[in-house]
Amino acid sequence: MTQPQLKAVHPVLGSRNVEASVRFYAFLGFTLAFQDRADAPRYAGVRRDGVELHLQWHDANEWNHSGDRPTYRILVDDVDRLSADFDRIPNLDRTAVSDSSWGTREFHIRDPDKNGLQFYRAR
Question: From residue 111, how far is each of 17, 32, 99, 115, 123 by CA, in Å?
Answer without folding.
Answer: 12, 16, 22, 5, 26
